[in-house]
Design brief:
The complex is a heterodimer of chains A (about 230) and B (about 250). Helices cover about 50% and strands about 15% of the residues of chain A. Chain A is of the alpha+beta class. Chain A folds into 2 domains: about 1-170, GAF domain (Beta-Lactamase); about 175-220. In chain A, a hairpin with a 2-residue loop joins strand 1 (about 30-40) and strand 2. The radius of gyration of chain A is 18 Å and the shape is globular. By secondary structure, chain B is an alpha+beta fold. Chain B contains 8 helices and 5 strands; from the N terminus they run ααββααβαββααα. Chain B has a 5-stranded antiparallel β-sheet, sandwiched between helices. In chain B, helix 6 (about 145-200) packs across helix 8 (about 225-230). The chains are: A alpha+beta (about 230), B alpha+beta (about 250). Chains A and B meet through strand 5, helix 6 and helix 8 of A and helix 6 of B.
Amino acid sequence: MRVLSLLSAGGETEPGTARLCDVCAEVADMSGAGIMLMSDDAPMGSVCTTNEVSNVIEELQYELGEGPCVDAHKEGRPVLEPDLADPATPRWLAFSPPALAAGTRAVFGFPLRVGAARLGAMNLYRDQPGKLSDDQHADALVMADVAAQSVLAMQANAPLDTVATELEAGANFHYVEHQASGMVATQLRIRVGEALVRLRAHAFSHDLGLNEVAEAVVARQLRFEAP
Amino acid sequence: MRGSEREVLLARTFVDIVDTLVDDFDVVDLLTMVADRCVEVLEVSAAGLMLVSPEGDLRVVAYSSEAVHAVELFELQSEEGPSLDAVRTGAPVVNQHLESVNGRWPRFAARAIECDFRSVHALPMRLRGVTIGALSLFRTHEGAMEEGDVAAAQALADVATVAILHHRAASEAQLVNEQLNHALNSRIVIEQAKGVVAERTGLDMEQAFARLRHHARNHNQRLVDAAHAVIDGTLKPEAFDPPGSFRKP
């Protein structure tokens, strides 16, 4: 009931996705939250994030293919990291350092499932280390359920072959990266999948975000030349 | 059957119903089990189950004997009988003696008596105000059914109802999730194709998308199929119809 009143507190008839993420963080008493959709075992993008830090958490997982949401989705269970900085339990070699640098200290992933449908995962983060209390853990499970049901309810009325408008609003499904892949594939005469790998490699070696590199390609400020 | 034996068998039936929720769920298997167990556990000769179909009409889904199958089909054809009443009203129809209900369901009663049934009971399959079907129980003799038996039958109908509704909700979720994944993947292909078109033509993304969509429409193609063709090189952006041109399908 508390969740429902929080969700409708925005005064809108249909709570949007931004409100959904805010409520996930609020209910579990966290610094921020994000909801990531996954297809098979690959991140597709993020439906909503509450702030810049949770945005970074989602972006890193999309770029690196590792992190709390990826693991929670793959393993089908909550993934709890109460202290990312604890050297005794190094969990994600690529994800952890930049996540810490962005202001994450504790991070938790909860799978989004309805019956046999696996949608992705919700992440919660805190800027301080520490375990989830039993209550927080229980609240997070409820919120993951609410989030999964909400995503499906939004998509249920969408025309076939399209993503629901309300689901797309505020989401980041990395369209620019895919556009850039198409351009780079043409520039290098390679396949688009390979082009995305080249973009990732360029981002990594120049210490840039994949999104920044993709934006530069689409703006024709960056070209990949065939050797 | 002794009371304790019956309780054991009832309990096992509930466990078996819950067990069907785990792996390959099949509504017909589940309801056939319910029909068979009613005959084993309760003092009844035959049992049948009907469900409301997606189109809104009732269908016979499971039965413990061919005789009850025939009677239930007749009930649907003649549009009168205990299961129809239970579904229509959402209330149980119990202890109806077929030889004295001629006024209520004259054709149904005559057909059931031909099959040697003497009394009938129908219990709604109902959850939170929604009736999805009915369980009917037939006996070859008259006399009131024990209250305990009626309650046990209703409990079996209720658990089966929960199982079916749960399964429907889960399949619906699975379907929507697959559609969402499909839509996201289609969208990725379209974005990639926009990139290819933009690179080959020098157009910006919006113009590239307009050209791609224009070509797909002119050729009665789905946008995502045109996008696939652009990506695998079978459709060259240079060969796109010029903007504004219209081609009869």
